[in-house]
Amino acid sequence: IRESEEDGLDSRDYHLDALERLQRAIEATPTPTPAMLTDFDILLTDALVRLSYHLMFGKVDPERLDPSWNMSREINGMDPVATIQLALDSDSLYQAINREKPQHAFYTELKAALATYRTIKAAGGWPQIPPGPALKPGMEDERVPRLRRRLSLTGDLAPRSADHSRTFDAALVEALKAFQRRHGLAADGALGRETLLALNVPVEERIQQLRVNLERGRWILHNLES
């Protein structure tokens, strides 16, 4: 349940706080009451069912967002209750839950990006690049050190290149091209209006985009045909 945050989900949907309170109370009580144990069991069961469903089918119903949605997935005749019991009886419930996640490389890469961007957010985010005339190779500008810092945080520019030089050099041009390609922009290596807007999107917004795309992944990335 705690690790569901790594998939862009919200651990509060799975009763995490209540479960942790109950677990502490049970562990601190020499003889837990049947009511305490029953509450704990019911909440755990609901959490397991809900988390499993969200991992297999997504939390959001795509048809509520777009009535013309034309993809569907079914449980393929398996009995959900029996399937959950098999997971409970398995050697590793943890692994059983993990197998319900999309195994596609794109989903794994999105999770890695989400972790990276959350680390950037925890460290204070990235600097905003002030507006100004377009920057092109060979130019000098007081905004260049800030641009170096911005691109180094997202791995587009090698850290050793993130110095305080005001020169828009070849390494910075290539780093900006990499950023532009990742964002579907014309990879011309120049800092124009569209590139500046993309650079200045706050890290919090990028995190939300990653969470949205992880959810989309749960809609469509299971058992894809070749």
Number of helices, counting only DSSP H or I runs of 4 residues or more:
10
What would you call the shape? Answer: elongated
- Portion in beta strands: under 5%
H and E order: HHHHHHHHHH
**Low-confidence runs of at least 5 consecutive residues:** none
Task: Give a description of the structure.
With 226 residues, this protein is an all-alpha fold. 54% of the residues lie in helices and 0% in strands. It is elongated, with a radius of gyration of 23 Å. The protein has ten helices and no strands. The longest helix is centred in the N-terminal third of the chain and has 24 residues, at 34-57. Helix 1 (16-28) packs antiparallel against helix 2 and helix 6 packs antiparallel against helix 10 (203-220). The model has no long low-confidence stretch (mean pLDDT 92).
Give a topology summary:
Blueprint: H1 16-28, H2 34-57, H3 62-65, H4 80-89, H5 93-98, H6 105-122, H7 144-153, H8 170-182, H9 193-199, H10 203-220
Helix pairs in contact: 1-2, 6-10
Keywords:
elongated, 10 helices, mainly alpha, 226 residues
Short account of what is shown:
This protein is an all-alpha fold and 226 residues long. It has 10 helices and no strands.
